[in-house]
Every structure is written in C-alpha cells, then in structure tokens.
Amino acid sequence: MAVRIGYFLGFLLLLIPVSARFIVEKNSLAVTSPETIKGNYDSAIGNFGIPQYGGSMAGTVVYPKNNQKGCKGFDDVGISFKSRTGALPTFVLVDRGDCFFALKVWNAQNAGASAVLVADDSEEPLITMDSPQEDEASAKYIQNITIPSALIDRNFGEKLKKAIASGEMVNVNLDWREAVPHPDDRVEYELWTNSNDECGPKCDMLMQFVKDFKGAAQLLEQGGYSQFTPHYITWYCPQAFTISKQCKSQCINHGRYCAPDPEQDFSQGYEGKDVVIENLRQLCVFKVANESKRPWVWWDYVTDFQIRCPMKEKKYNKECADTVIKSLGLDNKKIEKCMGDPNADADNPVLKEEQDAQVGKGSRGDVTILPTLVVNNRQYRGKLEKGAVLKAICAGFEETTEPAVCLSDDIETNECLSNNGGCWQDKIVNITACKDTFRGRVCECPLVEGVQFKGDGYSHCEASGPGRCKLNNGGCWHATQDGHSFSACQEAEGSKCQCPAGFRGDGINHCDDINECKEKRACQCPECNCRNTWGSYECTCSGGLLYIKDHDTCISKAASEAKTAWAAFWVILIGLAVAAGGAYIIYKYRLRSYMDSEIRAIMAQYMPLDSQGDVPNHSHEDHA
C-alpha cells in the first residue's frame, strides 16, 4: 500500500510545470488607526469562508492573551469576541502554526469573530491559505465557515501586536472591491472541475455547488452577461512508465492524459482512465453545445450525470452518459468525434489544450487547486457556495451594468420550453416533470389533481394511489370495442398496470385478447360449441342441451328441470320443518308461562310469599 501511495504522489508532482508560476490572490487591508502604523498593506485571501467580493468591512483588531494560535476553542479558555451593540466588528489576530488555517478561523468564528487575520511565522512571500484535505472531522467545520480570513506577513503582524500591547485601538478596513477586475458589462469566468464523485467531502461540495449554481449560471449565459468555460485538470505519465500497470489504469493515449484512481486502489472499482474519459466527454458536451449556441446545456448534462450515473451505483459509464446526452437533445455523433480515440498513441487536441491552459497567463497563476474558479482571469478564493460565488461574479461587472440576477434571487431559467428540459413528459394529457426554479431546471414527478406521480423524473413517471386511473388511465392500456370497455389500471396503492381477465400483455402499451376457444381454455365438453368474443367467449350446447359454465359441461333441459323441481321440493320441505320447529318452541314457551302463573296463584292462597301482604280471612269477618 505504501508503494502504491508513493507512486501516486510521484505522479501528482507532474501536475506542476517546470516553470510553475503561482499568483496569490490578494485583497487590500488598510489600517485607519493608530497613526503610527496607518497605511495600506497586502493580505492573501483565504480559500475558505466567504470573502465579501465587491465590498469592504471595517473592524477592530484583537490579539488574544491565551490560545494565540487559535488551535483550541476560545470558549474553553473563557474568551469571547462578540461585539457590543453599536461597536465595530471584531477582527481576531492569530499566529500561524500547530494546526490548519481553517481550524483557527472556525474557532474564532465560534467565539463571535467577524473576520480573522493570520500572522505568518516566518519572513516569506504570502501564500494562499487553503483548506486541508477533508476528512470526516474537518468536513464538519470547513463547510460551515462563513467569515472572511486573510494571511498577513510577519512584519505587519508584529506591528499590529505591538500597537495592541501598548493599549492602542487598532482599526482596519478589509477591501475586496479590486479583488476581481471589472472592465466592462460582461464577466468571463471558468471552473476547473472533475467528474469523479467518490473523492470525499471536497467532491461532494463541488457537486452540490454545480447543482445550486446552475440556475444563476444559465441565466447569466442566456442573457449574454457572462462567458463561461469549464476546464478539467490532467497530468502525464513519464515515458519510462507508460507500460506500467499504474499508467495503463490511470491514463489514456499512452500515458499522455491521466487522473487519480477514484478509490486509490488499482485492484478494484473504477480506474483513473474512466475519470479522464468522462472528463473528456464533458468537455466535448460543452463544445458541441457551444457550437449550437446553447453553451448553458453543459450545466444540465453535468448535474443530470451526477444524479443518474453515480459511481456508487455502478452507473458511471458510457451507456448512462449516452442516455443523458439523448435526453438533452445533443448530437452524440459529434460528441464521439470530438472525443477521438483514447487508445491512440497521439495527442488528443481537446485534452492537450486543457493541459496548456493549466499554465498561468497574465494576472492568473497556474491552476493547482481543484476545484478552482477564475473570474475575469483572477482566481476566486473562498467557499465554493452559490451566494459567495455569485457575489464574486457580480463584482466583475462594471459599476451600474450588473444584471438583475445580481440584485435578486428570484430566477427562472425557462429551460422547460426547450426539449422539455430533458425530463419526462406525457404529451397526451400535457403533464411534465420539468420545473423551472431559481436553481435551474429540475426533473421531479408532479402532483396533478391530487394524484402523485412517482418515478425518476427523467425517463418515467407513473400515477400512484387513489384517483390514478382518472388521469390518462394511469398510463395503462385501455380500449373500447363493441360497446365494451376494458382497462389495465387498478386504483389500489402500489398496484401496477395489469391486463384484465381475458387479455394478456404488458398492461402499458398493449393487452391482447386471449382466444379461449383456440387455446382450449373453456367450452371443451363434446357437446359444446365455442365462439370467441373480445375479452371473453360464448359457449352453446348442441342437441338442445343446457351449458353449465361453472362445470364446463352440457346437460339436458329435462335433467335441469328435474334438478330444479327437486331443489324446490327440498326448499319447501326445509321451510316447513323450520316453521314447525318454531311453532313448537313458541307453544312450549307459552304453555310453561301459563302453568307457572297458575301454580303461583294456588300456592299464594296457602303459603303467602315474602313479597306478598297478609291474605284477608273472609270467614272471620263473617262472624264479627
């Protein structure tokens, strides 16, 4: 394993050209007090959090007495940086070292800081503070950093500390208004991305950003406000190793264009060359869409591919990609021609152009961080999040030329008007899964007249639950003939389209009548005559016989009449027996009641009951 990782890291070094040129994106930092250090200073924008592109922020600098490197939670040492009402925001100054830059900023943010300045611990040119290679622990806080941060040089840091120690109030102003050039009314920006969706939290963050930003990006492009270009990083394999297992699994075109193995394990899962090929396909999707004057379709393809063709479901392949391309109405033949032959021992023009573009030009340095966003030839620094990125792009417009999207999030891209947005649609009843939202087009099965449709929203949606058969018969087969109607739709929850009795088929596109007579399913007695009807059959008997369907047999009418007479006789007999039994029970009941009353009367004359009063003695009264 160690050899494999070492080999992998050795390849990564080839990402850096020999004449590499790194440019640190800076914002202006002005000290407004005290007078002894008043002036403008450089600071390097942190590549996490949310820089206030196009704006500025004033605050008071605080240097903590404890936990000066910010590697522990400030609450643990009883320090709070929350500003009082009416006071300037607090900018916390911490020292570099002992832990990640992002962790320092996170701890300060939790204690109430509005921004963080990190003082370098050595005399050197400023560098970009990047987030660490995210693991489960760091991912919990990196994505939640919302305050800006900047690295300052050691000499300036010492000046700030000295002023604070002497009791001076140190006020500074962070200014991002010139961090992005804004020469005209159109912004040019590019995103260096990757199709690999199994590289951990950073990949998850990138995928989520593409989904969230799609709507705004398409609106800017469709309105002519921006020119967007996607890019993909590749590296080459040294000539001496092109026939090695590692190069063959990670590279195409004989080692010219490579990508890391998604699982960093050459023995299982997808290979690096699979990623290179899909990156190439996405580049060609953009080129073909751009030629058809619809460059914004790239955003649809990338988001749909993420949803429909993930690695974890083993769908990251050409077949799934072709399905997405077809749903968006793109010319797959042109895309295949653009991609060329990945096995050819020759340069691929598209990927060669990408490798050349990695080298910095003008005010933009080499692209070495993935993902990287470049706005007006300046590398964006900060959290890759829709609101923050949109603010940076809007800062690239000349003042007063900003489009409405920069002033409001109420966006509709109207993508559903073209090719139904590549979503499912029932043209018969005019139902679609396509929805225009401020995040761009989404494909979700709809709720229509109280009936919920279920499915993936792209290739199929079907009605579910009560009432489903009212809407286009629930998408199931139905037909009417000879005054009879049949349907394969069933109202029960979770039920599928099923052909009714007398038919067979898939229940959706067709249900074919079953010929019971020909298939000898019924009417098979010697005297039976079978005639097939649509959805059923008719059976008659020859020789004046009567057909009994339950037994599939013919009997004579006399026998039938005799059976009927005997049945009537037994019904009458049983009825008389029941009546007689009932009469006997009633007689017994009434007789018993009469006898009981007579006996009680006789006994009352000689043995009065406790509940009965004394019986008058009529004989005594006569002698009185």
Short description:
The chain is 31% helix and 19% strand.
Give the SSE map.
Blueprint: H1 2-12, E1 26-33, E2 39-45, E3 56-62, E4 90-95, H2 101-110, E5 115-119, H3 136-142, E6 149-152, H4 154-165, E7 171-175, E8 187-193, H5 201-222, E9 226-232, H6 245-250, E10 251-252, E11 257-258, H7 272-291, H8 297-308, H9 318-327, H10 332-339, H11 349-357, E12 372-375, E13 378-379, H12 386-394, E14 425-426, E15 431-432, E16 434-437, E17 440-443, E18 447-448, E19 451-455, E20 461-464, E21 478-481, E22 484-487, E23 503-505, E24 511-513, E25 528-533, E26 536-541, E27 546-548, E28 553-555, H13 557-606, H14 618-623
Parallel strand pairs: 3-4, 4-5, 5-6, 8-9
Antiparallel strand pairs: 1-2, 1-7, 2-6, 3-7, 8-12, 10-11, 12-13, 14-15, 16-17, 18-19, 19-20, 21-22, 23-24, 25-26, 27-28
Features:
624 residues; alpha+beta; seven-stranded mixed barrel; four-stranded mixed beta sheet; 14 helices; elongated; disordered N terminus
Q: Describe it for me?
A:
The structure is a single chain. The chain is α+β, with helices and mostly antiparallel strands and 624 residues long. The chain has 14 helices and 28 strands. Strands 1-2-6-5-4-3-7 form a seven-stranded mixed barrel. Helix 7 runs antiparallel to helix 8.
Low-confidence stretches: 1-23, 609-624
Strands ordered across the widest β-sheet: 1-2-6-5-4-3-7
Q: So what's the overall shape?
A: elongated
Largest sheet: 7 strands, mixed, barrel
Helicity level, as a percent range? Answer: 25-40%
**β-sheet strand percentage:** 15-25%
What structural class do the secondary elements suggest? alpha+beta
Average pLDDT: 80
